Amino acid sequence: MKPMADQLFLSEEHRIFRTQVRKFVQTHLSPNVDQWERDKTFPREVYQKMGESGLLGVGIPEAYGGSGGDLFHSTILAEELTRSGSSGLGASLGTISIAMPPVLIAGTETQKTTWLPKVCSGQWISALAVTEPGAGSDVASVRTRAVRDGDHYIVNGAKTFITSGTRADIITTVVRTGGDGFGGISLLAIEPDPPGFHVSRHLAKLGWPASDTAELAFEDLRVPVENLIGPENGGFGILMQNFATERLTLAITAVEMAQMAYEESLKYTRQRQAFGRPLTGFQVTRHKLAEMATGIDLCRTYNYALASQIVAGQSPIKEVAMAKNASTDMACRVIDQAVQLHGGFGYMREYLVERLYRDIRIFPIGGGTREIMNEIISKTLG
Ligand SMILES: Cc1cc2nc3c(=O)[nH]c(=O)nc-3n(C[C@H](O)[C@H](O)[C@H](O)COP(=O)(O)OP(=O)(O)OC[C@H]3O[C@@H](n4cnc5c(N)ncnc54)[C@H](O)[C@@H]3O)c2cc1C
Asked: Ligand 1, atom 4: nearest CA belongs to which residue?
């Protein structure tokens, strides 16, 4: 039987789209994922292949080189990319979904027609640079400064943990153009141009090895004024709109990772014998599986309900924060249980649950930590 979320929220057209994406993933991504994880990178041509299939431009209007679709198409895309076996690969391929919405929300017509077709086709890679070595959760305290000099900004500062940062061709960058606090923040599209721009480090990580994560430095980098996205000192609000869909996508991805861990556990515990019976012959195993399935189904249905509200034009900020915490905590728990059910094999590199265990740890941190989500939720308590 299809999950409740699928029955309640997806149309036949969404299901056809899922079949198309799954075919792409199974043909072009899954067979290579293990190698790319070992290589700690993947070929740049994958972006072009995704672009040719119309999968990079999901959610972006056709007029700007995208393939249209609603938030459920983006949801399906995130889920199916995760099913490639590497959520890190999905994160890198998906940076368009965090880097380009500000252009769609607040960009000029010229910015949209110049940049979006290049990114949707895979010719360009995009990234979003918010976090700095000294400012992560506290976005309003970023220190990268852009000072107006005629028809350019002169940018100085550093960004860290930037997904797709080492090879991005356009980076939506949070800069300070005004005074302290959120009212002095702007968004600037930076087209990496040495020597003012350089990648100071390619960062090694606990999980997501195939995904590129970079530290970037700007030293007297000249950026044309036309690259300002939205009004000067008006970047914070645009960024907050962006965070809602990023956080929901992280929640949706975490649920899919839990789903995969559950499927692996079900298969494994049905065939693994101990004390003369399969592991599913023990009630404690069956109950663990039951609890996994329950958490997954509840979180998926809640996340899809929020996607449906966003499609209808609502902004469920508090609920998205709740969804991110509930989904990522559930997924961490389910994946931990999956490793336990696999015994020593769960600790081995060749088992998918081992990768899921490393990869899931970023989810309660990235895109706003668990504690920051709780801050958002607690501000609305009566
Ligand atoms: C693999 C990876 C990919 C990433 N990709 C990107 C990217 O593409 N672009 C980008 O801009 N960033 C990216 N990030 C950065 C990520 O969004 C930040 O790491 C995250 O927002 C947390 O910021 P921080 O690391 O500076 O932690 P800090 O803000 O220093 O937080 C440290 C701890 O203090 C807690 N804390 C902070 N403030 C409070 C508070 N008010 N109340 C209670 N507790 C608090 C936090 O919850 C956390 O537990 C990525 C990070 C990783 C690891």
From this structure: 161
